[in-house]
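hi! just following up on the protien thing from before. the input was this:
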Amino acid sequence: MRDDEGYTSTYYDAEDMDENYYYYYMTVPENDGSLYFTAETYYQEMIPNECTTGSYVGYTLPNPVIDMSLFEDGSSSYSAYKVYSDQFNYPFLITSYSAGTVFSLKVKYTWFDSPAKDYTVKLYSKQS
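and the predicted 3d structure came back as:
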């Protein structure tokens, strides 16, 4: 963590979500430090594996699958893209951007019948 350098988390909790894509918009007011964008759900085994295990493109996975893309200033082409089993957190790291850039994070979870369909979208940065 980089808290001692002035980094803090700005986040939004999305609760009782379905398996559709959702966009979350963030405007950075200045060019100051790296930006870490992420979406994350409950830690592994906080929800019993029996409730979160499922099949995704032919693989049996013990955790929900996250599909996320990061876009800059309304571009239709993503700057970064990831799909993975949400066992661990894999943020997007952005080091080059301009003040006033609007980022949009596109997020979709495949829940596998999880009873807790919640996640947090977060920006960890020096921005306030």
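Residues 51 and 73 are 38 Å apart (CA to CA).
The chain has a mean pLDDT of 91.
cheers
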